[in-house]
User: Fold this.
Amino acid sequence: MANNGIPELSKGEFENYIKEGSILIDFFADWCMPCVMMSPVLEELSEKFHGKIKFGKINVDDNQALAQKFNVVSIPNFVLFKDGKKAEQFIGAMPLEEFEKRLRKIV
Assistant:
């Protein structure tokens, strides 16, 4: 389900991917309807925040240990990392405007 510009990461790629800068990781599952609904929202946000926030996806079914490590118990679940450390966490689907507002406060 890693669509267009947002890469779906494996556990091996994850640590390196979040090392530097601001990175928003979408913890999702293919069977999760709210996750599917958030996909176009994330695509648009990744374009709006290009150069400021890097976006990535983690499939919780394929990466259960990573999901547990970051206390992902319900999805969609979005974790914002700054230089490898968890800075923010947003849980649940939300409108583009709301998500954008939350990200603007951080960047």
Remarks:
- Residues 88 and 106 are 9 Å apart (CA to CA).
- The chain has one domain: 11-106.
- Strands lie at 22-28, 53-59, 77-82, 85-91.
